[in-house]
Amino acid sequence: MNEAAAPPRPWGEERPITSEAAVAAAAGEPQRTHPLSIVTGFIAALPQALYAIPALLVGGGKALPFLIFIIPTIIALSGFARWLTWRHFTYRIGEEEIRIDQGVVSRQSRSVPFERIQDVGLEQKLLPRLLGLAAVKIETGGGKGEDAELSYLKLADAEALRDLIRDRKQGVISETNAAAKATVEDEAPPLFAMDTRRLIIAGLFNFSLVVIGLTFAFLTQIQDFLPFDLYDTEFWMGVAGRVHIEEIRTIGLAAQIMAALGGVLILIAVGILSGIIRTVLRDYGFRLSRVPAGFRRQRGLLTLTDVVLPRHRVQAALILSGPIRRHFGWRELKFQSLAQDSKAGSDHSVAPLAHPQELEPILTEAGLENAADAARFHRAKLGPFLLNWSILALLIGGGATALLFIAPLAAPVAYAIAGWFLLLAWLRWRYHRHALVGGQLYVQTGWWRQRLTLLPMVKTQSIDLVRSPADRLFGTAGLVFGVAGGSASFPLHLRALPLADAAALRETIMAAVTRVDFSEVNEA
Q1: pLDDT tens-digit profile of 418-441?
Q2: Residues 6+ apart with CB under 8 A from 238
Q3: Where along the chain do its domains lie?
Q4: CATH of domain 378-523
Q5: How far apart are CA 387 and CA 503, in angstroms?
Q6: Terminal CA-to-CA distance of the chain, rounded, Å?
Q7: Cα(248)–Cα(263) distance, integer angstroms
């Protein structure tokens, strides 16, 4: 049984609303968020409110007696400010719009028309989740993430309000009531899901040294409170002297190399552990389901998110891989969409770690097809890829030649670096290719971070033909594709194509764009 198979309800008939708050909101009455949102906001803002206390300690012991008075005062003022903010925040659901009134000194009244809403999602951070609360996030695709947020409501109220907003937006009511809908979605098999084992494997591929970076950033912030200067080389030389660095030098070259390798292994272990932790926190319980509007994605351990990605908002697909990941048969699938994905912009990860055959049903539901294996790819010209790197390699090589008379051991290292740059340029060219099959443009880029872009021709907004000095020298040109919504992965750039081929490809794609009926595309 699935939701689409249920008999349709009469046009304009509203589904039963089980939440009293949603009933009042549906009647257009002003509503406030849950009172416990004062607590969550107060706790979230408390560290910032107390941030000035360490500065008082710099003055020495004279400031300590005042802390007995200052700390309770800061806490009381912060709590009172949160209560005022909550007291002056109201929302109401009209027939055509959502209106949000807020502000204590300066009042602001925001209206969000239903026809502009692209998505309504739920988010549960750790503390609200423990309190049974959820935030309702409303996004209109304006390019700035959520355009309105109701933080926080009871989970049942948030779910009912989300359904109410979607019903008002669509002008038609879902086939089943809210309780039946939740049951059907829970029972229906997902398009894609991740268990604990796959989460850990995904974490291994998300190697990150962010913990070390955060540690140094934290130490930099508290530099003034440390008894030593982090960047004082004499201090660290003194520390090294106290551990008898000369004795370390006498243990032999092999032992020194082993110690260095041990340090590298520790860094690798920290990076692996950091990647696993970040992946588990973000993607725990990952579940992608097909719903009438598009794709519903649920994930998160400390912060649980529940969002719907409208199918017609999907502009392109990105299949990410790499040499190691590809060797084990893993891929990651992202959708580039008009809808925003919080801080990640408009790149929605819909399958963080999947086998190629697991991607096919997701792509099919999105109206896309991966025919890259059967496609006839065309490569770019090698010259423009090598030119800039060759100049850099020559400069490094020239410096290395001079080093032969000053530091003979440094010259081979410099030659190796120059050769590495040339190898990178060749690899960039080797993995940069494109194909045009069945109304879709396939663009493959990257050697270490391999990316295959699937762009339907009709989704192209603009194509710029650009020619750099290297292109003019080799008779080539580049194409820059503009796609609606913006993304960290766009604009898509095809480089170093023969000039005639670049012009012909642009004309072919733009001819397909001008022939399409966009009203049919939006309804699809």
Answers
A1: 788 888 889 999 999 999 998 899
A2: none
A3: 205-282, 378-523
A4: 2.30.29
A5: 23
A6: 23
A7: 15
